[in-house]
Amino acid sequence: MNLQTIDQTYVMPTYKRNYTNFVKGDNATLWDDAQQHYIDFTSGIGVCSVGHANARVATAIAQQAQKILHISNLYVIEPQAKLAQAINALYDQKVKCFFANSGAEANEGAIKIARKYGEKDGVPKRYKIITLDHSFHGRTISALKATGQPDMHTYFGPFPDGFVYAKDIDAIESLIDEHTVAVMIELVQGEGGVEAQDKAKVQALAKLCKARNVLLIVDEVQTGVYRTGEFTASQTYGIKPDVITLAKGLGGGVPIGAILTPLDVLHGGDHGSTFGGNYLVTSAALEVLSILKEAYDAKRIDQLARAFDAHVEALLVKFPAIFTKHVGIGLIQGLRVNPDIPVANVIAKAHAHYLLVLKAGRNTLRFLPALTMTEDEMSQGFARLESALFDL
Which of 97, 215, 326, 354 is deepest in the core (most CB within 10 A)? Predict the structure, then answer.
């Protein structure tokens, strides 16, 4: 059997796969099994923040694998403790960290923090969590219910109660009542069309939550770890949430999620993870943060973001029949595609020109490049995209 047949025979069909078989990567370049090379503007949906096959991350993983991979959280884990310390050095308030295996797990943990915070003597006095329409918080059952996309809820009920959906940030205040414990938002709705929230409105929301003793949870699974320019998008927006969740870019390709909070809510037995924060993933994440901090200090991330933004804006101007709006910030960017043109057609044509790009909601073409992408890789990628658009 060939690879496609093996996959279709033995792997659950939950993904609409492209059957290109990638066998090697280097930063933002990939090669398939026919040695055709591609430019990657997706970084594995924002995961490979320091590019493919980063030598420093590979060395950190290999060195740790030769010592110890896993012992469980019944014992202190040195790289886990050092990762939490490193996060505190990059963030602008003191936080305790919990390490999970994914963004969905991190968001589930954030929901548990909110629910316990709202209880008094075991009684759920406050339990409602307000999220936004078009949001995406994960595919585990509570995170899925927190997701403000009703189509994604089909087949999977009954769900945990207590989630309320606001049309937009402006609508949140009217939904807060005596049972509201938290507001949970993305500062850029990655799956919801790369829609960046208005900075002034976000800051006003943070003040409102503090005044009403309502927790502000910011889902930074996609926007965290320098994706918007600062270590967290919350820092970019000038707010200090009660809870932040991270994942994707934190591990550079290994599965890790994190919850950051200054709150003293969860204690022994309240939450846990067998695999979370083990030696392997935290060693990798420590090296990822070291690489990205160096790039941030040298202004390379900012320079890349500005150049990428200019290329995206140029496409909007050059192809007005295809694109209607430039969205996003930093290195999470997108182009709204004309409603008469399915974004899937643009993605397929780009792939035919050996460029990987993503879709997002609202018929949006999404870009999530590696934060270490070279100028040459960026130029090659946009040249290929232009060729694909002329060929559309």
Answer: 215
